[in-house]
Amino acid sequence: MITADDYKFHPRDPNDDTWTETLFIIFSVPEYAISGNIYVLTRPNLGVCHSSIEIHQGMCFHPWQVHHNDSQMHLRCPDDFSDFTLANGLTFKAHSERNLEYHYESRDGICSLDLTYEAVCDPTDARDPNQVPQAAGSEVDGYDGWNNGHLEGKGRVRGQLRLRDKTYAVDVIEGVNKSWGPRNDWGNKGASWVHVELGGGLGAFLVLGLDFEDREVRYGPFKYGYVLENGERRPLVSAEMTAKRSDMLVTSAHVRFEDIAGNVYEARGTTVAAGPWYNFNPSSAGYQCLMRWEAGNRVGYSHIADFVGQYHLSLSMADELYN
Known about the structure:
- By secondary structure, the protein is mostly beta strands.
- The protein has a single domain, classed as AttH-like domain (AttH-like fold, Beta Barrel), CATH 2.40.370.10.
- It has helices at about 145, 310-315; strands spanning about 20-30, 35-45, 50-55, 70-75, 85, 90-95, 100-105, 110-120, 125, 150-165, 165-180, 190-195, 200-215, 215-230, 230-245, 250-260, 265-280, 285-295, 300-310.
- Strands 1, 2, 3, 4, 5, 6, 7, 8, 9, 10 and 11 form an 11-stranded antiparallel sheet that branches.
- A hairpin with a 4-residue loop joins strand 5 (about 85) and strand 6 (about 90-95).
- The longest helix is centred in the C-terminal third of the chain and has 8 residues, at about 310-315.
- The protein is globular.
- The mean pLDDT is about 95.
């Protein structure tokens, strides 16, 4: 079970240089086709951390098209991961496991964020079989960051974004996560982190493996997830997703998932904003896509985030060597 203490640093072997703890929140302003995130990766035994704040509007196919990309390495690691301020201008506080607060001001003053997160359900412990029936076999192949301690949350993100003298109100249902444990960031695998939001109290979260076949992305197998309906969270027993894309960015998607009670759901998504995120971790790339989801008369907005190791991308997508 997740508690407020899970936002602090966890007990660890002080000699393990690979011990890593991370924070991630995703947010959007759908009416302006804006998508963004805040990420922090710490190596507490080494005393350093890395933080990235990324914001894009519409379809951005190249890193130079992204509208705000502040990624800074080798910042001093905070003493308390539940309440800190970093030298890049990011402040975070976990008031509880369900209520979080973020503030950020870029060094040049061009961008600022003031966000609160209020959970719409208790956070999920991915390793707890009482919450995740597949917990014993839900590991993502080769992806240490997903396979040790892992918290997943869904909640209401509210506040304000200011960017380049324009100010936007943020009010969306989106996801957070936190991870902790030994982690070798080799970049040899991939996975997809999917939030489906359909309005009226209906949404879902799912994790799928990600691989390549003839340079095309294939999602699966399903790892774990849940559907949230009118405040009731039910584990998923199966899920699948297909997508069309331009380069590595999803342009449309179809998801189908079944919960533990036998209810089957389907939704189709059309991309509103997308961007490549190549610097949240030197070993990996993220492809973040804000989707407009539809199911019957229901409509909502939330994200697909495909995370792929750079090594895995090279093996799967690079041209053959020539003499």
